[in-house]
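User: quick one - fold this with zinc ion bound?
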Amino acid sequence: MSIISLSSGASCWRGLDYYKNKKINNLKQINNYEFTSTAIGTNNYDIYLDVSHPRRSTCTCPLADGKRIICKHIVATFFTAFPEEAKKFEEEQERLQNEYEDYQEKLYNKTQRYISSMTKKELIDELSYILDYAPDWVYNDFVRRNDI
Ligand SMILES: [Zn+2]
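Assistant: Sure. C-alpha cells for the protein plus zinc ion:
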C-alpha cells in the first residue's frame, strides 16, 4: 500500500495544497525510504515519513499524533520528497474527472433518447412512479410548478 492509497481523499488534496504552497520545510532524507520534515503553519509539526512502511509514518499534529493516520502533512512531505508523485496524483485525478464527465454526458444523452422513445402511457407510469418515491420536496415542487 502506498501513502496515497492509505490516506483519505481530503488528506491527499490538502497535502497537495501544502506541497504547492511550500509549507514543508527542513526535508531530510535518512535513506531511500525514510524522511523527516517540518510542516509550517499556525503551529509547526514534525513529520517522519516511511514510504516502504507508510503506516509507520508519524506526524505531531492533533489528527495524526499517536495514531496510525496518514494526515495531510505526511502526504505533503511525500509530495515534497517525490514531486513526480504529486504530478502523477494530479494527472490521475484529472483523468478520473474527465472520465466521470464523459460518462455523465453519455448517460444523459442515452436517457434523453430513451425518454423520447417512450409512449404516453409509459411516461405517465414512469412519472407517477418517480413522484411516489421522490422526496417530499420533489413532489411539492411538481405540484407548485404545475399549479395543481
Ligand atoms: Zn499531520
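One thing worth noting: The chain has six helices and four strands.
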